[in-house]
# Entry
Amino acid sequence: MDFLTFVQLLDSTVRLATPLLLACLAGLFSERAGIFDIGLEGKMLAAAFFSAAIAAVTGSVWLGLLAGITASMAFSLLHGVASITFRGNQLISGVAINFLAAGLTVLIAQDWFSQGGRTPSLMGGGRFEPITLPFADALDGVPVLGPIYRELISGHSILVYVAFAMVPLTWWILFRTRFGLRLRAVGENPAAVDTAGVSVVGLRYAAVIICGVLCGIAGAYLSTALQAGFVKDMSAGRGFIALAALIFAKWRPWYALYATLLFGLFGALETRPDVIEGLFGLKVQGALLGALPYVMTVIILAGFVGKAIPPRAGGKPYVKER
Amino acid sequence: MDVMPKWAEVTLVPLISLVLAALLSALVILAIGEDPVEAVNLMVTGALGSTYGWGYTLYYATNFLFTGLAVSVAFHAGLFNIGGEGQAMLGGLGVALACLFIPWPHWTLALLGASVAAAVFGAAWAAIPAFLQAKRGSHIVITTIMFNFIGAAVLNYVLVNLMRPPGSMDPATARFPEITHLPTLHDILLPLGINFSKSAPANVTFIIALLACVLVWFLLWRTWLGYEIRSYGKSEPGAKYAGISPVAITMIAMLISGALAGLMAINNVMGEAERLVLNAVEGAGFIGIAVALMGRSHPFGVLLAAILFGFLYQGGAELALWTSIPRELIVVIQALVILFTGALDNMVRMPLERLFLMLRRGNA
# Structure
């Protein structure tokens, strides 16, 4: 494998890791506040559809992004109403949201566009175009660093940079602000937060809404940047891989970056069987490689390689003492 | 402490949830510019208007009975088994191996053997998440989700690389031998003078599913083990105090659950397709969740819910055929049923409880 192939592989790793990273951070906010969310997949899918649909109709990708975030937030609020206000089962609510999104997106797509559950292909202003960073061409001649700068760092859509900027931002919010401290506390011991006179319900809704915004960006990225338009079930299990990455990262922002990059690399290798064959001299089945994130998560969950301990109050509705 | 009488708990709550889900579904149909009344008419004639329709409705219902019972048994132990999909997939592998590699003398023996294989494979796929939950405390919901994906990958690998007949491009096994074909409801009902549709896939497995219903009821409410499963599900500390082993109950409940999900394969793989294809389960494992929630995890409720979903499934297919409403409408209805009977349960329950409290005060 030559150097350029290697850089290209890393480049597609970054592109495939971006939606995972955004969804993983989304789940991080929600689960740190004690709301389990297995509906990441559905929210991403809904956002992917509404972004592509609005971008196709208006021709503006920014309006599309806004629509995607709105749709994802609507599903988040539904999850919030079910699991915070009505103290329902968060896992069941997540399952319902996944199916609701899977069904509604195709139903609405068929009604609006009549193209078998997809949106028209996006062109021009309907997509997030790659951004060429300054000096990308000028530095091309520099050995090693030139191609890395041009291929790997430059030439992504704005959402990729947003996703990577979200990692330090998430860390800062969660570990350096009062809001973050309270948010984490509400996931560990909501009664203590309540005693301090801070609203548990308010904090949890805030976390769920942030989760919706991030899932919305992730979904918009899928249909307006990674691909040009929505197709049925296009999230293709990414929400669950993000969930796996979240566990893998032990609910920490920087680890989330590493985990999603690793899973992104698996995704990139899956599309390049020739690279694997060149590297290891054996044919690896793409399907088996695709299952690797899940297998690794099960191993981590089993606690054989470092134990992943979820937020203590996760999944439990908070009942104020009367 | 019960505010509501028992009859209200088992009938009113699910019925109101169902009505809410139906109303919202009607709104969805209206929103996409179709007539809900017309749609229901089409669904009823398509799914229940002929023995052909009934044959499909009961065929789907058989699938959902098995997966619904699987989720129910786990629910009773306080476990949420989302892995029915993967367990049914692996059950299909068991059926395919049993049908292809063992020379059966008669279909009854083949059915018996394939059932055992399906149950064992399904249970095996539930065993690892169960063990990890029981021994290592890993959350069973997450591990069973992961095992659905791993199961799909394993099946893909096996079908493409190992079990595909030479020269075939299709990732599927060879056809099962003639002797393993199961009698359809047409074959069973003909001697009784009932002319049931010949082309519908409902088969003898439906009767086995009904038997499974009775057995699960007997197990849960008439045996020691069932008592232990239910008390563990109600209160883990209480069960522990009574000397019930959490590890044993978690394992046993999940093994039974996985075996039931796996058993679905004798219906769809052996009874209908007569070979193993890649996407044989078609989401039935997930519908089991909706069925169990709606049926309040009681075998009789599960039976009613499974038939309702069988009707929705067949009716939805008819709708997709005759109108511009895509099949995904059923996925939406399924989601709404899960939402209202599962997650928003309290939304229906709280006002009802208040109502019954008021009535009681009025009487006193």
About this structure: Chain B has a mean pLDDT of 91. The longest helix of chain B spans residues 107-136.
